[in-house]
Amino acid sequence: MKTAPLRKLLVANRGEIALRVIRSARVMGLKTVAVFSEADAATAHVAEADDARLIGPAEAAHSYLNIAAIIEAAKASGADSIHPGYGFLSERPEFARAVADAGLIFVGPPGDVMAAIGDKVAARRVAIHAGVPVVPGNEVADLPSARAFARQAGLPILVKAAAGGGGRGMRVVEREADLEASLEAAAREAQAAFGDGRIFLEKYLARPRHIEVQLLGDNHGKVVALGERECSIQRRHQKVIEESPSPAVNDRLRSRMLEAAIRLANAVGYRSAGTVEFLLDGEDFYFLEVNARLQVEHPITEIRFNCDLVAEQLQLAAGHHVADPATPRGHAIECRICAEDAEHDFRPATGKVLYLRQPGGPGVRLDTFLGPGVEISAHYDSLLAKLICTGADRDQARGRTLLALDEFALLGVINTAAFLRDVVASEPFARAELSTHFIEENFPHWHSAEGDEALHAADAAWIAAALVSERTLGTDRTAAPAQAGNSSVAVAPRSPWSVLGDFQLGRR
Q1: Cis amide bond preceding 84, omega within 30
Q2: φ and ψ of 202, to 5 deg
Q3: What whole-number distance in Å separates Cα of residue 376 and Cα of residue 382?
Q4: Are 257 and 278 in contact (CB under 8 A)?
Q5: Pairing between strand 284-291 and 272-281?
Q6: pLDDT interval class at 344 (50, 70, 90)
Q7: Using CA atoms, how far apart are residues 250 and 352, in angstroms rounded to an integer?
Q8: DSSP 8-class letter at 19
Q9: Nearest to residue 36, comparing CAs of 14, 21, 8, 67?
Q10: Which of 35, 285, 296, 467 would staple 278 via disulfide (CB 3.0–4.6 Å)?
Q11: CATH assignment of 8-107, given 3.40.50.20, 3.40.50.150, 3.30.420.10, 1.10.10.10?
Q12: DSSP 8-state secondary structure symbol assigned to residue 348
């Protein structure tokens, strides 16, 4: 793996994470290069970088997933290194190898390390060899073997894709009669999503917690762990709220989990930032997978350990030694605000940002690419912003999160802020009664509280006046489309957003 002082970094991503990487790189004195699709020409990460290169049309397959175009952009811009962010190509061994083959520095683990742990079946073998506990399972997933495993382990069992993640290619089988159909469906979905239809079987854990350990590894054989994060609140196997430390992990259990994560990383010679994920069932934990990249939820670790994980990645890529982590302080919670309609089964939402109010105050951070006029399309991930709040303890962090979600306002794009507020305000969350089934058990059919929108009447009046002012000045930057039916500035007493047609504020 080539290492050298970095001078110019290309960020092979978009949106919030591209901005995040660019800002840390610039603080370190690096020049930065953004890449963008035709749909992203006017976005914030393009404006923030020192240089920007068009790499293709809106479709990710022809732009942000186009390895040849990204490497060509790096060469043309004079970049000496590439940071993949998360998502897109960040965990593709072929991308890491192509970057290295082009004589550039890949800010992440080498391709051979990714290959060793990116495949879930191979990663299970590594974990077993390293003495890390794994969920009882079976690598052979033909029907006779699956039936034998189901009878031996007991139903329900889990059918999982060997490649990829995010819940795709995954099926819970509760009846033996459903086994054949579930195997076929999971294999089809895995093939369509990852180009790899291999599946395997695991014992299904009824109400586990999802705990992950943040790692940093250098090129000199040292790996350190920066505590754990609780990521149990999920919908469709996608994380929604994360916190650190986990309310369920005591010092003894934490020591065991961190030691197991480091042992597994050492078994494959892990480098750069990465995360080992576990399922926690009481005092027993089981290896789940390794994410060979920076995680979406990395800011809650940064805050507690007073570090910049992107800067750490860049230093490690340049050949520096990893430092022992600082003593962690306080508690941190992250909420992922997404362009989704939580009242309608988290249906994806699109739109144009007409107004954004960002929360503030002690212990509040908002990572986002949003601003007035930004178009949210269906081409990319639904993540709009990450709200990160910290406090001296969990209660204070939770209180600041609630206040920040109250203050957050987004007009023009349906989003999950109101749903997240209700989750954090709930008694089960306050009591830290968490599991990966938290949402389906506590919020199976969420709707915003009747009448809550009236609390935003003053904001509605202010925004309506601002919209009129913009139109009067002729800027039209934040004006809603004519068909939205918002030519009137009158505010209905019951619902201040009724005058804005389909556009709405992130509700409480």
Answers
A1: no
A2: -140, 155
A3: 8
A4: yes
A5: antiparallel
A6: very high
A7: 45
A8: H
A9: 14
A10: 285
A11: 3.40.50.20
A12: E
Q: Encoding tokens for residue 443?
A: 């919020």
- List, by residue number, the catalytic residues: 293
Using the Cα atoms of residue 447, residue 450, residue 455 and residue 456 in order, give the sign of their dihedral.
Answer: positive
Pick from 365, 210, 250, 235: which is nearest to 300 by CA?
365
Angle between helices 417-425 and 394-407 (to 10 degrees): 150
Share of the chain above pLDDT 70, in %: 87
* Distance (Å, whole) CA 347 – CA 362: 33
Q: What phi, psi does 431 have (nearest 5°)?
A: -85, 0
Of the ranges 58-62, 244-248, 442-446, 483-487, which one carries the lowest mean pLDDT score?
A: 483-487
pLDDT score for 167: 77
User: How do the domains of the chain map onto residue ranges?
Assistant: 8-107, 110-134+207-326, 136-203, 454-500
The CA distance from 122 to 116, in Å, is 6
Q: In whole angstroms, how far apart are CA 282 and each of 241, 245, 411?
A: 21, 16, 42
Task: Say what the pLDDT of residue 449 is.
Answer: 78
* CATH 2.40.110.10 at 110-134+207-326, yes or no: no
CA dist., res. 379 & res. 364, Å (int): 30
Q: Which DSSP string do the residues of 203-251 spell out, in sequence order?
A: EPPSS-EEEEEEEEE-TTS-EEEEEEEEEEEEETTEEEEEEES-TT--H
Alpha-carbon gap, residue 90 to 290, rounded angstroms: 13
Q: How confident is the model at residue 237 (pLDDT cuts 50, 70, 90)?
A: confident
User: Of how many residues is the chain composed?
Assistant: 508
pLDDT tens-digit readout, 157-203:
999 998 877 678 899 999 999 999 999 999 999 998 888 899 999 99
Beta-sheet pairing, 31-37 with 8-11: parallel
Contact 389, 333 (CB under 8 A): yes
CATH 3.40.50.2000 fits 136-203, yes or no: no
Non-local CB neighbours of 218 within 8 Å, separated by 6+ positions: 271, 316, 320, 321, 322
Q: Reply yes or no on whether the pLDDT at 307 is more than 60.
A: yes
Region 385-404 average pLDDT: 98
How many C-alpha atoms does 236 have within 13 Å on its Cβ side? 7
pLDDT of 46 higher than 50:
yes
**pLDDT at residue 458 tops 70:** no
Q: Is 124 exposed, middle or buried (0-12, 13-18, 19+ CB in 10 A)?
A: buried
* Distances from the Cα of 327 to the Cα of 243, 274, 302, 321, 437, angstroms: 17, 20, 12, 19, 32
